[in-house]
Amino acid sequence: MNPTVPELQRKFLSLLPRNYWLLRNVIDARMEPMGLSSAQWRPLLLLDGASGPMTQVQIARALGLESPTVVRLLDRLVEKGWVHRRNCPGDRRAYHVELTAAARALCADIEKVLTELRASVLAAFSRAELMEAVGLMERIQERMATLDDAGHSVQGKADAVSLSSAVTAPSNRMRTARQRRRIEKTS
After folding, report:
1. How far apart are CA 131 and CA 127, in angstroms?
2. 88: β partners
3. What angle (nearest 5°) sits at the alpha carbon of residue 71, between those of residues 64 and 83?
4. Other CB atoms within 10 Å distance of the CB of residue 11
5. Which of 162, 98, 3, 65 has its CA nearest to residue 73?
6. If you ran DSSP here, which 8-state letter would residue 147 be given?
7. Is 104 within 8 Å of 48 (Cβ atoms)?
8. pLDDT tens across 64-112, in order?
9. Which residues contact 126 (CB under 8 A, 6 or more apart)?
10. What is d(CA 156, CA 146) in angstroms, rounded to the nearest whole number?
11. Is this prediction's pTM over 0.85?
12. Beta-strand (E) ranges in the chain?
């Protein structure tokens, strides 16, 4: 069978979310023994990789979540002793969020699990195949960044997202045009 371009496009785009959910389920299963869900390990890694404390708003933006959702999530992380909040100097309404020492040690374990999983999942692919796949995914991401919420081309530039972030959480890293405009206005 020789599929048409529209058939290949449909198949390709249907495989993206399927593979994301398969990967997410495997990651969640591997994180469960550490008492972590994807809602918890992702912000921990985000904070671990940050150059300093982050505000709740910055965390929400980086994870593609609404602020009230992040507040509840951070409440749970505080209860577990993995993060602490402190007042943000100069803005009484904002809080800085930082990891605790226990969470920093946990992040090393999380990274180890993710590194082993990436190696396991991608072991069957050559370096050249991985480079081609990464290039293709980056081109798709750039193209998606030029579309508005209705799928029409607009002027704009692509969101820069690192490969490691895209591999661990692709659906939350892709922003709609409306989200990008909102971020650009507040930055």
Report:
1. 6
2. 91
3. 100
4. 10
5. 65
6. B
7. yes
8. 999 999 999 999 999 999 999 998 888 878 889 999 999 999 999 999 9
9. none
10. 6
11. no
12. 54-55, 83-88, 91-99
Distance CA 64, CA 119 (A): 26
Q: Which of 172, 133, 184 is nearest to 21 (CA)?
A: 172
Residue 51 reports pLDDT greater than 50: yes
Phi-psi region of 148 (alpha: psi -120 to 50; beta: other; left: phi over 0): beta
The string of pLDDT tens digits covering residues 127-165 is 999 999 999 999 999 998 888 777 677 654 333 333 334
123 secondary structure, DSSP code? T
**Of the candidates 164, 170, 125, the residue with the CA atom closest to the CA atom of residue 23:** 170
Place of tokens 């591997």: 30
Q: Are strands 83-88 and 91-99 parallel, antiparallel or unpaired?
A: antiparallel
Q: What is the dihedral of CA 34, 38, 39, 42, to 10 degrees?
A: 90
**For residue 155, what pLDDT is reported?**
52
Q: Going edge to edge, which strands form the sheet with 54-55?
A: 54-55, 91-99, 83-88
Among the residue ranges 25-29, 52-56, 122-126, 164-168, the one predicted with the least confidence is 164-168
CA dist., res. 99 & res. 158, Å (int):
30
